[in-house]
């Protein structure tokens, strides 16, 4: 049976086949996220579909009426590699000129004995990568890693001391993971000048300078191709509560300084980078033992571009995302938050490829809230159905309970726009929109037909009032229509 995927907003999805608008049918057990069947065949199909995403999704911002892309600095790199509208090229996980090194990567982890670094080391070893642990005290580090120490290469270096040791630490490796950091407030960790300014800020600058010098000098050895750096949520919100308190001693200033050093050096040398902005670190080892329960992942992981999320994040989850970021094109040259939302339960650390595809896929599609892909699509019929549905359901008061705010329906060339409104002093003002877009399948079959829904404006993190109700109604009504047609067939 041909398989289609319906997902959106963390809500329920389904498998479908054989219907009037395309190939639909109920079937299959769903994953906890509601949009991935836990069967190998469907997982493989999903990976194939992920390589044929519409180019507009890659830039994650499009005005359907004018076909004009928004200019968003954080997404410029994504848009520069987008395929043409015909879908003859694919966007997303693509092989590139640097792909070969990833299959046998040698990775240097700086800050290897820290809370996150410890997990990064273990996860890299589980992937059979060659791992270099960059530490201040090799004897202490070997004791910490126990039996695993025999699988590691140890190099002594201190990020606060620029020079030859740091250069040796980053030479002849493919990737560098920066897990350096100290406490936000004065503590024993600040001894010997290990303040945020010296460690989180100047320390990272020293590492980047070493990478640059080695890159220029090295001829016969490997050069760094990828940098993954740990920063923090709040670096772009330093004046807002509670981050203003967190930054009383300059930790967010130092981390932002480090981010700039990573970006500037990477762009100068043509390197890939990923900057992770995790929430408050919890779980073992070492600190926040009161929150140790989160070490094994009581809550799911959410990745989001920019700096708009808050909350906690288990160290083990941060490490898992850091390691995946080394190998994933979706994380290329991006800065994003990593948190464990309290309302998103999850049984264990993410391991399945399809789950990672979903998590990192959101970095390519930050404002996508619903995606329905299927094997064939009668665009005209579905467009007519959408027009009828939006008019009869949304504007006639057929929804129960009623929508909390009014919604205006505007047809577009490729679907329709649902604009959420508010009335202030007798004036009607738009709050934002759900842009429903129908995408036909390509003639060669490489790009599937799809119904896509984008939330606008860009990076509108929270759903509009009534949004979830509308999307649930849309999915339910589509399921009923297509299921009925399938049975008639």
Automatic annotation (TrEMBL):
Start and end residues of each DUF7148 domain: 377-480
Domain of life from the UniProt record: Eukaryota
InterPro entries noted in UniProt: DUF7148 (IPR055572), NAD(P)-bd_dom (IPR016040), NAD(P)-bd_dom_sf (IPR036291)
Pfam families named among the record's database cross-references: DUF7148, NAD_binding_10
Basic residues compositional bias, start-end: 30-44
Domain NAD(P)-binding span(s) in chain numbering: 111-327
Region (Disordered): 25-47
Record's protein name: NAD(P)-binding domain-containing protein
